[in-house]
Amino acid sequence: MGSPLFTINQVSCRFDDLRVLQNLDCVISEGEVTGIVGPNGAGKTTLLRILGGLLKSWEGELSFRENSMRVWDQRLFAQQVAYLPQRTQITFPYSAREIVLMGRLPHQSGAFFERAEDHAIAEESLELTGCTHLAERYFTELSGGEQQLVGLASALAQLPQVLLLDEPTAFLDLRHQLQIYRILRDLQKERALSLILVTHDLNLAENFCDRLLFLKDGKLVEDLRKENNTFALTGPLIEKVFGITAQKEASGRFILSYGN
What we know:
Shape: globular
Radius of gyration: 19 Å
Number of strands: 12
Structural class: alpha/beta
Helix content: 25-40%
Largest sheet: 6 strands, mixed
């Protein structure tokens, strides 16, 4: 376990009268792949957006690298932490290369993408994600899978030490799912990235993550770490969190069912 990355102490969040997160306590460590799982409406994306500095209307105490999130300079924070949403919403006719160059914004002091360094990092990020051939195409003309890869390239161009991903393979076909997670796995090892991701896919979470945070109704229900390369997932835990019956086979796989 590495040093503390995010320290979450009694963090709550509400939208009008709806309480989305309730008194979360947790420490997320450096260098880990942390999965946030749970049913729809559990507060997963809200938590990720708070960690990314995108939501300010939370209560409690939250620190990043032992400094309160409320005092972090936004630009300096963005040099270390990148956020990849489920979908990157772009309506203007930017090329894929321009989208990736936008990832360099936190590192700009004045001139707008005039440094050779920015262009070199953008080209490297396009190459890492297999998007070089898309560089001159308009982002709005790309498929969902291609857009997500370009979005990932833009996030990597920030040269972050922490990458936050909100269901990074949602809506993608199997080929693009495997491609994105292969890229993430390789980069996590090569760059010692800390990854925090929201996912609905328990099988994926089991294989990819070092730790799983189970949320339900805005509360942290369970915090599991991988031991001996596996998680101590149980049928009762899955039923408690997701409201479905889960029976474990001898192979270790769960047979899931709902109702009668």
